[in-house]
Design goal:
Length: about 350
């Protein structure tokens, strides 16, 4: 009798220990068990990532975008996209590479312009304002975006002999577009400096110098830039251009309750990152056909809120044959266009 009581005691203690170990992770085991029965529907198995999408009618051109560079709508049939690669300090002789591409309604590049330069030597510094390419170091501008002319025309100082006061500077920019500024250091031992401001009015460019007490900031919007809040579309919004067709949960993401990761007791299922890593499957409605791609996604527990690692802004011109996807986080353009016959 005593032996049976002892056996029962051992069994009960064993059950209790197992329960203590397993119960905190019950949610993890349950979710992992559920995932075994969730199979990916057959129609989504052929989807590839956007950068590896292949199609007999369409092609995808990947371009590196410039940081904060706008997409310019030059006219009803042409946009200009700008790519910029900054100087690589570890590679001697490799400077900034600034490229402008003109894109027609079929998504084909009809013209391009490229400059390579090093901003550190103070010789060139190219900026895109409206539909002008301006070298703010050399005080020149180009009309290439408008008419294909690559000539750089000089623009003048408002007053070669003067450094304007703060009040005078405010008067000047009140009647001109304040486009750019830079600090110009003197060669004196006192490290004196002044500001150089670039301004624009009635298709005329100028620059002038302001005293060091000037504290303004150029915030004139680019009048030719595409406003994606009006002209573009975010993925999976009401535009219907790109839709999320399916979400597949693939792995329960929370760690075990007993995890010692990060040297924190019980850091696992108490984490705010509980949920599933998975894949979203999208369709892209092009003029000729529908294309498909897939992308990683995180699905939050318990509300199934979707967190994409990044999102696109999408531009599709009216009556155009192409689509432009802008991944701002990774500074990439995806130009989806019909293949040439």
């Amino acid at each position: 009798m005593k032996i049976n009581i002892k056996k029962k005691s051992v069994i009960l203690w064993s059950i209790a220990i197992i329960a203590v170990i397993i119960l905190p992770d019950a949610q993890m085991y349950y979710q992992r068990y559920k995932l075994r029965s969730e199979r990916l529907p057959e129609q989504y198995k052929s989807y590839s990532t956007l950068d590896s999408l292949k199609d007999k009618d369409y092609e995808i051109i990947e371009l590196s975008s410039g940081i904060h560079e706008p997409v310019i709508k030059e006219n009803d049939s042409t946009i200009v996209i700008i790519t910029k690669r900054d100087r690589d300090a570890e590679r001697e002789g490799v400077g900034n590479i600034y490229t402008w591409y003109k894109i027609n309604m079929k998504g084909q590049i009809t013209d391009s312009l490229q400059y390579q330069y090093n901003t550190e030597n103070g010789v060139h510094n190219y900026q895109t304002f409206n539909d002008y390419i301006v070298d703010v170091d050399q005080n020149t501008y180009s009309n290439w975006m408008k008419d294909g002319d690559t000539t750089h025309y000089p623009y003048k100082n408002l007053d070669d002999a003067k450094i304007f006061s703060v009040a005078e500077t405010e008067d000047i920019i009140a009647e001109r577009d304040y486009m750019y500024d830079d600090i110009i250091h003197s060669e004196s031992s006192g490290n004196e400096y002044k500001y150089k401001l670039t301004v624009f009015k009635d298709n005329v460019w100028n620059y002038f110098y302001a005293e060091k007490n000037w504290h303004g900031y150029p915030n004139t919007p680019n009048k030719k830039a595409i406003d994606f809040s009006n002209s573009g579309y975010e993925v999976n919004k009401s535009s219907g251009l790109i839709k999320r067709d399916h979400v597949q949960k693939e792995e329960w993401n929370a760690r075990t309750f007993w995890s010692l990761k990060n040297f924190s007791w019980g850091s696992g299922n108490g984490s705010s990152n509980r949920g599933w890593s998975g894949t979203s499957y999208f369709s892209i409605n092009m003029p000729k056909k529908t294309l498909h791609y897939k992308q990683n996604v995180f699905i939050e527990y318990p509300d199934n809120y979707l967190r994409d690692p990044f999102s696109y802004f999408v531009y599709h011109p009216k009556n155009g044959d192409y689509m432009l996807l802008i991944d701002e986080e990774h500074q990439l353009y995806y130009l989806i266009r019909p293949k040439k016959p």
